[in-house]
Amino acid sequence: MKNVWFTLLLLLPALAFFQDEAKQKKVLMVLSSYGKDEGATRPGYEFDEFSQAYLVFTSNNFEVDIASPLGGAVESDRYNPGKPYNKAMLENAKYAELPNNTLRTADVDPDKYDAVYVVGGKGAMFDLPYDPSLQDIILNLYKREQTVIAAVCHGPAVFANVKNGEEFIINEVRLTGFTNEEEELFGKKWVKEFPFKLEDHLKARGAIFEQADFMLAHTTVSGKFVTGQNPFSTPASAEAVVKALGMEPVDRTPYPDENAMYLVEDILNDTITLDEAKGRLDANTDAFDIELMAVYGYYRILAAGENKEAIAKGIDLIRLTTPYYFNENLQLFLAKTYVSLEKQDMAMPILEELIKKDLLKEQAEEVLQQVKS
Q1: CA distance readout (Å), 95 to 51, 88, 238, 249
Q2: Which residue range(s) make up the domain with 296?
Q3: On the CB side of 144, how many CA atoms lie within 13 Å of its CA?
Q4: What is the pLDDT of residue 3?
């Protein structure tokens, strides 16, 4: 009997270890309190980023709390409720109410959490970097072992003023976030009012800033920091948090916009041919957000400047998606792009089709006249 008790005593530390390992992980998601009137009066958080990350965490059996600087109800910018991840949140009564009942960061006990995940949106630029309670939460996790500090898109703005002693906690840390190029292409309304440019400010604080091409998914993991570059980086960045906490993320079906942007990346990197890309679209059209791919082609051309190779990639994307998504404005833009490249023979059929379909007819006729003259 003595030997049995002795054996049990030896096993107790090991049992305690396994119990601790099996303990449900707890994540604090943080949303901006700044938003008002769906972003019309003041920008808020991005609901797409919130919903995608929340679904990743809960599907991996994480316990999740939602906090904001002011607590209570917080408002996102306008979003598409029909997106599958947003629909999943809105159709669940419990999930749908989460943004209406956030914890106030001043009331949060950071010791309860294994990770913090800061959701982006332009509102994050205005209030999150200046919330002392949120800074305390992040510093607490920074100093503790086996914790993760994560943010996506504009969310990394939260790191701008967090210090450990005299040093900023992101000094010499590899990070990503919404880039200067992305601000220039998509920022428009609010970027001039930002207290700082995210990319520049993170670099000024000593961070080693990493990025992919604009709006392509990119996640950076550096020590206990996990950051995602833009909204399309949300699922991968949330799954990187899961991995950083010692778990393998459960399998899931990628969303159509995810598939679309990964296909765009493959095309830009010449990983696949256009015929192979068309084969993927033909095989499962509904698996891709084809409109998103077409619009990316438009922005690829806008951002290209005089880079003819980049212009060609944008043209490829618009042409690839045209059989599945026909938009007269994109087609007219494509025709004008061909004219600017002195490829009138490519522009003419597009213009003639628009005229025949009575779509932007006057504008198409005007361009066609220029082509023929």
Answers
A1: 9, 9, 17, 21
A2: 256-372
A3: 17
A4: 55
Domain CATH number, residue 296? 1.25.40
Tokens of residue 360, six digits? 């932007």
pLDDT at 128: 98
Last residue of a domain, one of 244, 266, 300: 244
Closest CA to 32 of 169, 134, 108, 115: 134
Structural domain count, the chain: 2
The pLDDT value recorded for residue 14 is 47
Give me the amino acid identity at 96: A
Those residues whose C-beta lies under 8 Å from the C-beta of residue 327, and which sit 6 or more positions away, are: 291, 294
240 lies in the same domain as 278: no
Give CA separation, 302 vs 181, 305, 313, in Å: 12, 7, 11
The residue among 11 and 41 whose pLDDT is bigger is: 41
> Are residue 75 and residue 217 in the same domain, yes or no?
yes
Same domain, 188 and 271: no
For range 292-300, the mean pLDDT:
98
Given the structure tokens 């002011």, which residue do they identify? 70
Mean pLDDT of 51-80: 98
| Contact partners, residue 26, CB within 8 Å, separation at least 6 | 62, 63, 64, 65, 112, 113, 114, 115
Same domain, 55 and 182: yes
Residue 14 belongs to a domain = no
Per residue in 83-133, pLDDT (tens digit) is 999 999 999 999 999 999 999 999 999 999 999 999 999 999 999 999 999
